[in-house]
Design a protein that fits this description.
D-Maltodextrin-Binding Protein, domain 2, 3 domains, 39% helix, 10 helices, Arc Repressor Mutant, subunit A, alpha/beta, 5-stranded mixed sheet, 296 residues
Length: 296
């Protein structure tokens, strides 16, 4: 079945509102002859004359009167669909956003993000998923709305990224740890017992590579999969946890921190999403709140 020309709905709406071919033509910026041809097409499509002459004017047929309100609503709905959304009705917004990120990000920035979102849009729910790999397929298929990541070569070229903050690794030990009483040196750091954080269970990391370049090797006593676990262990043992500073700020309360005596590059944590969500008003609103929460 062929699809009728839906532009005729706009023409019919204006004709029924004006009751005049000439006035409808002026309103739609068409010539009277073009409007007459459009009316002929409408008559053919509906099987009804729609407007018939009565004296010097035109009057609608019963079929036209029956169509008038429905056609008007259809045109208004079509205009609304094709018009950019200027504002959000945040108090009435009901939506679930899924964000894939590290546990440290949720623990440190999650409370601030949730508070900001809930204050403006109580019907919005945030779902946080652990990020176990760097594959951006979940962004592409819409399973995940947003991710945080250190942008590298593995990031797909089709995703958008915006920097949130810079982070650096620091050392952390329990309060009153023997190492907290004097300045940390490279030799003292290397000679101590450490916790290594590796999601993949590796027994070496970037810090070990940096130490190796100095001819040193640290003693790794235990390997864990997350920074929060590393801090929990360091809080009750004599082990050193080396963790990103901003990701763990709220988790290090009451512990002693120090700058690493070995040079490590800083990290830029970015927010990433699929470009199809660029113009979505609710998605833009959430991205802005995440940026603000991370800027504090």
């Amino acid at each position: 079945m062929s699809i009728p020309d839906l532009n005729l709905l706009v023409t019919l709406d204006v004709l029924l509102a004006e009751g005049s071919v000439a006035r409808a033509a002026r309103r739609l910026r068409l010539s009277p002859s073009a409007m007459s041809r459009a009316l002929a097409r409408l008559r053919e499509a509906t099987g009804d004359p729609l407007l018939v002459r009565a004296g010097r004017g035109l009057v609608p047929t019963p079929r036209a009167l029956e169509l008038r309100d429905g056609v008007g609503r259809l045109v208004q709905d079509g205009v609304a669909v094709l018009r950019p959304v200027d504002s959000l009705d945040l108090p009435r917004l009901v939506r679930t956003f899924t964000m894939r990120t590290s546990d440290g990000f949720v623990e440190n920035f999650g409370p601030g993000i949730i508070a900001r979102v809930s204050r403006e849009a109580p019907g919005v729910r945030l779902r946080f998923l652990s990020k176990l790999d760097k594959d951006s397929a979940l962004l592409r298929d819409g399973t995940v709305d947003l991710e945080t990541a250190v942008v590298g070569k593995s990031l797909g070229p089709e995703v958008r990224a915006q920097a949130l903050f810079r982070d650096r690794f620091i050392g952390v030990v329990r309060k009153k740890h023997p190492l907290s009483k004097s300045r940390m040196t490279l030799s003292r750091y290397a000679a101590s017992r450490h916790i290594l954080v590796s999601r993949r269970g590796l027994d070496k990391g970037p810090i070990d590579e940096a130490l190796r370049s100095q001819g040193l090797e640290r003693q790794i006593t235990t390997i864990v999969s997350g920074f929060s676990v590393a801090l929990a262990l360091a809080r009750t043992t004599d082990l050193i946890a080396s963790v990103p500073e901003r990701h763990t700020e709220t988790l290090r309360t009451g512990m002693h921190t120090f700058l690493l005596p070995v040079s490590m590059p800083s990290l830029t944590i970015s927010l990433i999403w699929h470009p199809r969500m660029d113009a979505d008003p609710a998605h833009r609103w959430l991205r802005a709140h995440i940026r603000q929460a991370c800027a504090v």
